[in-house]
Amino acid sequence: MTQFEAAFDPKLSERKLYDFWMEKGVFKASRTSGKKPFTVLMPPPNVTSQLHMGHGTGYTMQDILVRWKRMKGFEALWLPGTDHAGIATQMMVEKSLEKEGTSRQKLGRVAFVKRCQDWKEKYGGMILDQFRAMGFSCDWDRIAYTMDPHLSHAVRQIFVTLFNEGLIYRGERLVNWDPVLQTGISDDEVESKEVNGHLWYFNYPIEGSTEFIPIATTRPETMLGDTAVAVNPDDERYQHLIGKMARLPLANRLIPIIADSYVKSEFGTGAVKITPAHDPNDFEIGKRHKLPFIDIMNPDATLNDKVPERFRKPRFEARKEVIRALKELDLFVKEESYKTTLPHSERSKEVIEPRLSLQWFVDMKKLAAPAIDVAKDGRLKFHPDLWKKTYLHWMENIHDWNISRQLWWGHRIPIWYCKKCDGHTTGMTDPSQCSKCRSTEIWQDEDVLDTWFSSWLWPLSPFGWPDKSNDLEHFYPTDVLVTAPEIIFLWVARMTMVGLKTRGVAPFHDVFLTATVCDKQGRKFSKTLGNGIDPMEVIDRHGTDAVRFTAVQLAPLGGRIKMAPEDFEAGGRFVNKIWNAARFIFNYMDQSRPLQPLDASKLSLSEKWLLNELAVAAESVDKMLHAYRINDAVEHVYHMIWGSFCDWGVETAKNALQGTDQGEKDRTVSVLVYVLDALLRLASPVMPFVTEEIWQKLPKHPGWDRPVSLCIAAYPDPTTLPRFPEAAAQWQRVQDVIAGIRSVRSQAGVPPKQQLEAYVKTDTAGVTLLKAADADVRRLAGLSKLETAVDLKRPGQCLADVGKGYETYVPAAGLLDVAKEKVRLDGEIARIGKILAGLESKLGNASFADRAPPDVVEATVAQRDNMKTQLAGLKINLSALAD
C-alpha cells in the first residue's frame, strides 16, 4: 500500500503535483469534447511588479469556480494573460532609468520601448510563476498578452472601425494632466484626497473706476490665465458691475465681468475668477460665454511664456510669487486656512493639473445605450446586486472617453497627419499618403492609446477577433467576470459596450465583484504603498492550500477584509487536520480486504447521520457557489470536514475500528473512505494540492469514479448522495447530549481524561437511543457511567445541561466550588433577566412594532426567545445545585 507520510509537506508535493497536472493536460479546454463550455477570462494583471494577496484572493476565487465547473462536467476554460499597463510600466521604467542617471528622452523612443519590453519579460514571468505556485488551473496554451501581434491587430481594427463610423474624434478638451508622467489620464485614474489648504483673497481693479471687485481662490497662480470674472446675476452687490471690465493684475489685461447662475453668492466673496483652460467648471462657463482659453502651463506644470517672466516657475513656486506680487501692489486682502479636496494621480500620486489639451476621444453615448439595456433586463447580472445601480448611474451619465496618452509605451495611435492639408488618415495598414490630398508628407501621431483601449477587447481578441475563429464561436460569450469593484467603469462597462458593438451579445452573463483586501489599518493593498502581502512569502511558510483557504474564507461577497500574514496559520491547521484524519483512516485499511459499497441495511445510526450531513453539505456548497457566495461555501466545507467528519465521524468510528468485529471494521472503513473521497472532491477546488495528494493514496471506492486526477473527478452531486434524515435527527439527539456533557466538563474545568458520571432524563425514544449508543456516549463524553430514564431523579447537587427533550445531570461533588458557582449563576440570572425585560418592553411598544423594519423586529423577537432559553437553563442549573 502507498506510504502515508506523518505530515503533509507542501514544498515536496506542490511542484510535483502541478507538473503532474500539466503533464496530464487536465487544465486544457477542448472545443470538440461535446461538453458545455464554462469560460472565465483572467483579468490580465499589470506587468509592473509582483502581485500581492489582494490580487491573489480574487484570482483564487476564479480558480475555485473553474475547478468546480470542470469537476461538474463542463469544458472549463480559464484563459490567462497579462496587460502591458501603459502608464504604470512607463512610470516604473522611467524610475529605473533615473537611478541609472538617464531618461527616456536620452534613450530615444525605440530604445525606451525595448526597455519596457524587457521589463515586461522580467515581471510578466514573475507573475506567471506566482500563478503556478498558487495552483491556478489555467489553460496555459492559450495565454495572451495585450501587445501580442494578434491582439494589437484587434486594437487597430476597433480603432479604425469606430473612426470610420465617426465615433472616434479629435478635440480640444480640459483633461486631468499628470505633471510627473506628463500625460492626460481619465477620471477613473484620479484619487480625491482631502488636504489642509488655504483660501486667498485679493482685489481686481475695475477699469475706469476707483472700485475693486474682490476675489477668493485656492489657486492664485491660475489668475494669470483668467479671461473673466463671474458673479451671480441675482447678487445685488455686483449687479452694477456686470458688463464692465476688470484689469487683471500682473498680466495687465482687461477681462469682462459676466453674470452666470453657476456662481454661488455665499461662497468666498461671491465673485469668481474664470480660467477656462485650467478648471473644469470654468471651462463650461468659458464655452457658454465664448471666452478666450489661455493655457499658461507647460507639460511639467511650470508656467509658460504666456505669463510675465517673473512667474515662469513650477506652479507652487509661482503661487508664492503671485501672492508676493499682489502684496506689492497692495491688492492682497487676506489668507484663510481651508480644507479642500484635491485630485491626485493614482499612479504618480502627484496633484492633478486640469489642462486644456488636444486629445482623441470616443463618443460613448451610442455605445452605452445597449449596455444599459442588458443590465436593466437582466441579461447582465451583478453580484452583489447593489453594483447594478452604480453601473447604471455611471452609464446613464457617461462622458466621452479620452483614449490618447502622451506616452511612448503602448499601442501607438494609428492616425497619420498631413503637412499639406488637415487630413487624418488611418487604416489596417500604415498609409504611404494622405487619404484626403494624396500627399506623401505624412507623419504618425506620437501618442499611444489608453491601456484600457486594448483591455476592453479582452473577451474578444484572445479568441481571434476580428477574424472568424472556432474558439470565438465556442467560448464567447464567457460566463462570469470576476474582478474588483473599482474597475467597474474602467473595464467592466467598456467590455460590455464593445462586446455588444462587435458581437451583439454581452461578453459575460455575470459580474462577480470581489471583496476589497486591506491591511490591518484598513488601507487597500497597493503596489505603490507596498503594504500588500507577497503570496510567495506566505506560501513558503504555510503552503498554497493554507493560503488559498484562508484568503477566500476571509472574503465575503462584495465586502471588505483586513488581512495579515499571521491569518494564514488557521489555514495551515486546517490542512494538517485533513491530512491527519486521512492518515488515521489509512492506518486501518487492509489491502487484502476490498472496500465495500454502501449498504443502508448495515449502516449504524452515526454512519447514516454522517452520510446525511455529507449530502446536506454538498447541496449547500453547490448552491452557494452558484450564487457566488464563495466564502460561505468554503466555510461549509470547513465545518463539514473539521466538525462533522473529524470531530464526530472519525471519533465515533473508533469503537468499531479498534474493536474485534472484522465485518464491522470493514464496513466502517468503507464508509469513512466513501465520505473522505467525497470531502476531498468538495474541497479540491479550494485546496487542490493536499486533496490530490491524499486522493491519489486512497484505494478506489466502488461508489466513486476514478479518473487520472482528482481535478477531473466528479464533483459530489447532492441529488444522488444517500440521505437518512430520520436517522440523522435521532443521532443528533445523541450528539446534543454528548455536547452538553462536554460543556459541563468545560464549565467545571474538568480535564478531558477525568471520567465523569452522567444522568439523563428524557422520553422513551431518547432512553432507547442513549442505551443503544451507550459505548459511543461514554467514550466521546469521557464517562465512567451513563444512566438514563424517563422518570430519573436528580442525584444530589449537580451541574446541569438542558436541551430539547432532555435534562443531563453531572454530580458536582469534587468538581467545583458549589457556593461560588451559585453566586455566579445568580448574577447571570439577574443579568439575562434584565436584558429580557428590556426586549419584552421594546416588543410591547406599539410604536416599535409598527415603525421598525420587519427584519429588525424579527431579529429582536429571536433575541428575546434566545434570552428566554438561556434564562430557563440557568434556573435549572441553579436548582440542580440545591442541597
Describe this structure in words.
A four-stranded antiparallel sheet has the order 6-5-14-16. Helix 1 (10-24) packs across helix 20, helix 9 (365-376) runs antiparallel to helix 10 and helix 15 crosses helix 16 (568-586). The chain is built from 26 helices and 29 strands. The chain is 44% helix and 17% strand.
Percent of sequence in beta strands? 15-25%
Strand order, biggest sheet?
6-5-14-16
Radius of gyration: 36 Å
Find the count of extended strands (DSSP E, 2+ residues). 29
Low-confidence stretches: none
Discrete helix count: 26
SS class: alpha/beta
Query: Average pLDDT value?
Result: 93
Globally, the shape reads globular
| Largest sheet report | 4 strands, antiparallel
**Straight-line N-to-C gap:** 60 Å
What proportion of the residues is helical, as a percent range?
A: 40-55%
List keywords for this structure.
26 helices; single chain; 29 strands; alpha/beta; 44% helix; 883 residues; four-stranded antiparallel sheet
